[in-house]
Backbone:
């Protein structure tokens, strides 16, 4: 209980400090403050879509999947390809309405990410469950292979999202400042995902089986349950969430071969900050880092310290680990 109390205190101190700094810097401008908060939540939810898969796979399987960022990048490429004309899969003649094509593009990204997750877990990782160093090398190697395949299929040229659809173009006002409805959509989707996965793991029969299989796989198999299939499900879920993140991020970030590594590093920082294997810690950590990045971006405007937003995740990580060496909700492992 004391551990949780100290974690909550650290969270409150960091978040209140960030928001107070931004409010003072903006001279009490509520419009600028509100946009910074929403921008922070938006970036936090994008981080969560990468980090949650990492956290689930590590927390339940003790596998640190270094290909997670590549699945995020792959999701962005697949969604871009399906949405735009002239791609590998051109649906513009079959589904001319871009508002209908976008959910198809997101679904396609999820399916591709899940399928490759099954291939990676069943074909390669299953033989290495007792060899963690080999797991790291393997997932890193798979990441490099997927990156080269992406370059072969879509070339090395970055793609900017040019297709217009309603959800992306709509805006609303907050304290006199405009904000994209699409960003609000991603924030809402992120919070729904946080709640949905938490309920899956803690309130459903499947979640109970997953957690029991991690604790004592021999006992669960004695009950007639195929634990290997359960682990495949967990790994597939983590990869599919990463591909989903890339697909919904593509309208803002586009698709490029550097996308995966950037989000992987930030995702690992969030997972460590929240506590290795702690799903709730990953969720809170994502929001904290997202808000910190947004505050840093606002603070860097008009200064020569443009590198501040990119190093902010590591600065927050260092601060939290000084207070809680095992992370916000982690245990000594």
Residues:
């Amino acid at each position: 209980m004391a551990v949780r109390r100290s974690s909550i205190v650290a969270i409150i101190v960091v978040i209140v400090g960030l928001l107070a700094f931004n409010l003072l810097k903006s001279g009490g401008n509520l419009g600028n403050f509100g946009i910074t908060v929403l921008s922070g939540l938006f970036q936090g939810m994008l981080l969560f879509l990468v980090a949650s898969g990492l956290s689930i796979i590590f927390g339940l399987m003790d596998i640190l999947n270094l290909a997670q960022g590549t699945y995020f990048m792959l999701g962005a490429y697949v969604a871009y390809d399906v949405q735009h004309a002239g791609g590998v899969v051109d649906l513009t003649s079959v589904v001319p309405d871009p508002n209908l094509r976008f959910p198809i593009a997101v679904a396609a990204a999820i399916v591709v990410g899940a399928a490759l997750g099954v291939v990676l877990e069943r074909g390669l990782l299953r033989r290495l469950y007792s060899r963690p160093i080999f797991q790291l090398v393997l997932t890193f190697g798979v990441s490099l292979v997927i990156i080269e395949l992406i370059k072969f299929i879509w070339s090395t040229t970055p793609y900017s999202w040019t297709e217009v659809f309603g959800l992306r173009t709509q805006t609303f006002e907050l304290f006199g400042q405009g904000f994209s409805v699409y960003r609000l959509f991603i924030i809402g989707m992120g919070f729904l995902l946080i709640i949905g996965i938490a309920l899956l793991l803690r309130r459903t029969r499947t979640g109970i089986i997953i957690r029991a299989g991690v604790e004592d796989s021999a006992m669960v198999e004695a009950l007639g349950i195929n634990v290997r299939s359960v682990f495949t499900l967990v790994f597939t879920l983590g990869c599919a969430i990463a591909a989903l993140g890339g697909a919904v991020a593509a309208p803002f970030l586009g698709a490029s071969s550097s996308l995966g590594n950037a989000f992987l590093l930030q995702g690992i920082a969030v997972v460590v900050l929240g506590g290795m294997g702690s799903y709730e810690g990953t969720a809170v950590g994502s929001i904290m880092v997202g808000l910190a990045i947004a505050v840093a971006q606002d603070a860097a405007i008009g200064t020569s310290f443009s590198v501040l937003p990119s190093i902010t995740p590591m600065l927050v990580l260092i601060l939290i680990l000084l207070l809680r060496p095992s992370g916000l909700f982690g245990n000594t492992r």
